[in-house]
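Changelog entry: the ABC transporter ATP-binding protein record was regenerated in this release. Current contents:
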Amino acid sequence: MEPEILTTQQTHAPVKTIVETRAVTRDYPSGGGIVHALRGIDLRVLPGEFVALRGRSGSGKTTLLNILIGLDNPTSGEVFVLDQKLSSMSETERARLRRESVGMMFQNAHLFPSLTAQENVEIPLRLARVPSRKRTEMAQQALAHVGLGKRAHHRGMELSGGEQQRVALARALVHKPRFIIADEPTGNLDSLTGRDIIHLLRSIAHEEHIGMLIATHDAVLYKAADRVLNINDGQITEEVK
Ligand SMILES: Nc1ncnc2c1ncn2[C@@H]1O[C@H](COP(=O)(O)OP(=O)(O)OP(=O)(O)O)[C@@H](O)[C@H]1O
Ligand SMILES: [Mg+2]
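Regenerated structure tokens:
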């Protein structure tokens, strides 16, 4: 059955799928041989879905995430983001798609330590040339959304690891993306703080119809996910929940 078309945001055109891949492979030349990092990946994430990507170290998670947002190219196969074929877009168009529609999180928050939480969250808005007053308002809203409104003027280096990761989430959300990709966002957090971040991510995915794909080793995240994609040696199997 074809998925229903959802309007994720009023200002955006409706899309059927957040991300879809068809037979994606990625080979790396390595030491005279070839590493087959991805061996034919077919996946789909719909608006509002919170999907975990589980796999052992070296199974291809980071390789796949980079390809899904057009930071790397597949050796073969096709990737569609918001129903648009990445291989038909120019580098500039892909950069624009990332800037406008994608939010990213990593194992480390990667905040600028001497900038405040508010200034860190404003960075994607500066890149998108949002005027100063609007930037302030949007960053404050995003920080409030992750429960850090009161920490807006603390510097990155004055925040705990969990708070830094929540600032990173606010930064990933501030430009109202439709697709969030995260590579082990709870990898450096204690289990309770990690759980808070996971439940926050999940509720935001569901409430705002954002598609999220989260690479993780965290069992709490598998439980919270709508679906779990297992990646093993560059191939995906889906876990029925
Ligand atoms: N630039 C590269 N050149 C050659 N091989 C690479 C390169 N990047 C990744 N690989 C190989 O591709 C495979 C998948 O790597 P990838 O980083 O995607 O794994 P991962 O699932 O993210 O692992 P981890 O959980 O440790 O982060 C591994 O065998 C890795 O050694
Ligand atoms: Mg990785």
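The chain has one domain: 19-239.
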